[in-house]
Design goal:
Length: 581
């Protein structure tokens, strides 16, 4: 509906332009919003106010002119002017009902399909030397939810798990692996099963033994020159580390597979070329023996120039160098229209610098967008970054285990007579969903406090609330299995039916917002409101005991669309639904 009104306004602007009233370039600035107060209609626009200068008319006069030129539409019941010059649109209830009827049969549930784009999404991207910890949660699940939404709308998504699989720390890890191998394969694989300890033990050896440290440094050099033995050790290490990641993805319901891994090492051979190209364009400077790029717009707090370091004095390359190569690949080989980076906001400056440099160097096609869809920190109840009691990093698997245990207790207390297998399955879904939903429902740009109690509550905007709401709607159909809806027609009479209908019709707008801005919390907020609108409707409007057969079918159809929308919405968040809980 919103895009329909936008279309109408665009056509109107075109005709006003032909009449010489407004200049050409206003279409992109049309903004249509839902009204908060229904006495102002369903949608409003401030377009008339925006045009006053260009048209040299009073806003209310332009508003009238727009209304006079608006193409007729069967979806719009009434249009009027309010306040200083807002234009309010009242949607025709029959049109709304028809739209919902169509959504019920539509695989996109009525969502408008945008022009298809190729979107590269860089997410999860852990450093492989460590096991996945809570710091990797946000990128993995927020990124995955946006990926699912993009694909649902028909975009071509290329997942890029830009894992940190290259760099000096690998020398240390390989040296340690070599030592363990010497003690037998069993020893090595046992130790590798806990990467966190493996890393720590390697670090201890590195610090305590000069010979070990020398060997580690030697292995880095050999690895970088492509030495076969080193490569083999490195591949083995990577395989173990990646299989840990895959276990976590599967458990979390994150859609990344081994095929999506395209890590830092993949760009290794291109780094010399990156330097050469920057040099050829006169962008490189030398600073303390290192090759750097200074960009005028980046300065330190003290006003000193702030360079991007491209190549260290010892010849080593940096994180930024790899990102430059990666951007070029994403633009020229993958042909992305958009590249999204789900990475901690603490890397904001890094991305500003490399994005701007990639543009200056012509590494990306001008029409491709580079978007750092960053996120804040997940904090503990004390407001500081989430840690174990002893101050260590919390492994993601441990966090999920605890969520599972707590969910099991909760589900058991609500269903004392349920069999163990069913309890376990429900607890698995509730546990994982709660962790994911608590994170996804927050605006990604802000920090948030991780609280098991809150996320497992049945009240408020939580996973248990929504999962339960879904089981209630689904439950209605269990009781109505034999009823044939094919002859039904949605009619919106009761106030609460209209409210629910209006909510259902917003799915498209919300989904498009999630995809444009990379903000799944918009979907969470929407589903929560939808569940609320359904419960008000269900309280006020008997469904199976409706007054007439036609009314019963109409209400069942509304319930069915609600169930479908909740399920689809949760699925786009990467959250499984339950038929009972
Ligand atoms: N591995 C990096 C880290 O753990 C994140 C990589 C993000 N992606 C990128 N293209 N820089 O901080």
């Amino acid at each position: 509906m919103k895009s329909h009104i936008q279309d109408l306004l665009e056509q109107t602007l075109a005709s006003l332009k032909d009449q010489g009233v407004v200049p050409a370039d206003f279409a992109a600035r049309i903004q249509v919003d839902r009204t908060k107060d229904k006495s102002h209609g369903d949608f409003a626009t401030n377009l008339a106010m925006m045009l006053t200068k260009a048209a040299r008319m009073k806003p209310r006069d332009i508003a009238q002119l727009i209304i006079d030129n608006l193409p007729a539409s069967s979806h719009v019941a009434k249009v009027d002017i309010a306040g200083p010059g807002f234009i309010n649109f009242f949607i025709d209830e029959n049109a709304l009902a028809n739209q919902l009827q169509h959504a019920l049969e539509d695989e996109l549930l009525g969502a408008t399909r945008p022009t298809q784009q190729t979107v590269v999404v860089d997410y999860s991207s852990p450093n492989l030397a460590k096991e996945m910890h809570v710091g990797h949660l946000r990128s993995s699940i927020i990124g995955d939810s946006v990926v699912r939404s993009l694909e649902f709308l028909g975009h071509k998504v290329i997942r890029q798990n830009h894992v940190g699989d290259w760099g000096t720390q690998f020398g240390m890890l390989l040296a340690y692996m070599e030592e363990l191998r010497a003690q037998g394969d069993e020893q090595a694989s046992m130790q590798l099963s806990d990467l966190e300890n493996f890393y720590r033990a390697a670090k201890v050896r590195f610090d305590e033994s000069a010979d070990f440290a020398t060997r580690a440094r030697q292995l880095v050099v050999e690895l970088q020159s492509g030495d076969e033995y080193c490569m083999k050790l490195w591949h083995e290490f990577k395989a173990v580390s990646l299989s840990h990641c895959n276990d976590v993805y599967q458990r979390l319901g994150v859609s990344l597979t081994p095929d999506d891994v395209y890590g830092e090492s993949a760009y290794n051979d291109d780094l010399d070329q990156v330097v050469a190209d920057l040099d050829a364009q006169g962008l490189l400077a030398t600073s303390d023996g290192a090759q750097v790029v200074f960009q005028d717009e980046f300065k330190t707090k003290e006003g000193e120039p702030l360079p991007v370091i491209i190549k260290k004095a010892d010849g080593g390359y940096l994180y930024a160098t790899t990102d430059l190569a990666a951007m070029r690949y994403r633009s020229n080989v993958l042909k992305a229209d958009r590249a999204l980076y789900f990475v901690d906001l603490r890397q904001a400056l890094h991305f500003q610098q490399v994005f701007s440099l990639a543009r200056k160097a012509g590494f990306v096609r001008p029409e491709m967008t580079l978007e750092h869809t960053g996120f804040g920190t997940m904090n503990g109840e004390d407001g500081r970054p989430f840690k174990t009691r002893s101050g260590g990093v919390v492994k993601l698997v441990d966090l999920l285990d605890e969520a599972n245990t707590r969910a099991l207790e909760l589900v058991r207390s609500k269903n004392p007579d349920m069999d163990e297998a069913t309890l376990q399955e429900i607890a698995r879904v509730v546990g994982i969903s709660s962790v994911k939903y608590a994170d996804l429902s927050k605006n990604r740009a802000s920090d948030y406090i991780f609280s098991f109690e809150q996320m497992l509550s049945f009240e408020g905007n939580t996973a248990p609330y929504l999962l339960y709401a879904y089981t209630r709607v689904a439950g209605i159909f269990k009781r109505a299995e034999s009823i044939d809806l094919s002859q039904g027609k949605i009619v919106l009479e009761h106030e609460k039916e209209k409210d629910l209908g209006n909510k259902l019709a917003q799915f498209s707008e919300v989904l498009n917002r999630v995809v444009d801005k990379g903000t799944p919390h918009a979907m969470c907020g929407y589903l929560f409101e939808l569940a609320g609108a359904f419960s008000s409707f269900y309280e006020a409007c008997p469904v199976l005991a409706a007054d007439t057969e036609a009314q019963k079918l109409s209400r069942l159809m509304l319930a069915k669309l609600t169930a479908k929308t909740l399920k689809q919405g949760l699925n786009l968040l990467g959250i499984e639904t339950l038929e009972r809980m």
